[in-house]
Amino acid sequence: MDLLQNTVSSFIALVPVTLAQSLILAFVVLGIMIPFRMLSFPDLTSEGAFPLGGCVCGVLMAAGMSPLAAILIALLAGFVAGCCTAFIHLRFRIHTLLAGILMMTMLYSINLRIMGRSNLSVFGSTTIFDWVPFLQPGFPASKIVMAGAFGLLVFALLLHYFRTEKGTAVRAVGANPDMAEAQGINVWLATIGGVGLAGAFSAAGGALMVQSQGFADVNMGLGILINGLAALMIGEAIVGKSSVPRQLAAPFVGAIVYYQLVSFCLAAGMPPPDLKLATGLFVLAMLALPSLKRSRGPAAARETIRE
To answer: Which carries the bigger pLDDT value, residue 131 or residue 298?
Structure first.
């Protein structure tokens, strides 16, 4: 009983911190979802675009630039990285996953060049979280309010965009690129723009994380992709993916639930090194479940006929 009470109390104490973190990392999950679901373009660029945004933001803040301007420039850098991944795939006929691996590998060196070192502290610099009125800067409440406001704004803008003619064209390219091209849709433009948008959101998540934690590191994206996939699977299991609003809501819902689960596991005493193994097994199970259900279908049908 004492163990359960300690676990619950530790979990409750961590809720505000993990909620703020999950709202920031929801942008990375969104950057994973857009190519994966909207464009049928499995992409690994997020693991490189996330630290890219953080490194760019950190350097600009250290130089005295406005935190909002630093985020916007980091977002632009992530957009360029995503566009490069899509261009490599389209121009050289390289598989999407390999193109993402190549871009992610090159971004590591680029991030080191940008910062000039492996990590950079921005403690003491003004962040966008300091702009929240009536709340003390640096505390989770200000981060929750600001990240939540950004999330709602992005959700509304994307929902509007994907209901426009251009947004529908992007979804059509993901559904059937040959048919989309036959209808006069520029497949190259839609693919490059969509993957670039995903890279921009991943970089924005990195920029927000740097302002939240107070430092940038070239290795800050290590493992972020598998965490994002796990969050996406949870979000889709909760809200579904049958419509555009559900697809857009899944990254935010999934990120919140996933990081609360991680927090509960840590509070219950799970060793931190085991979290990656548990996350990988969870994603594997979620990806394998549909195929297992399909393979059971004919067998179940045969058993029914025999009876």
So the answer is: 131
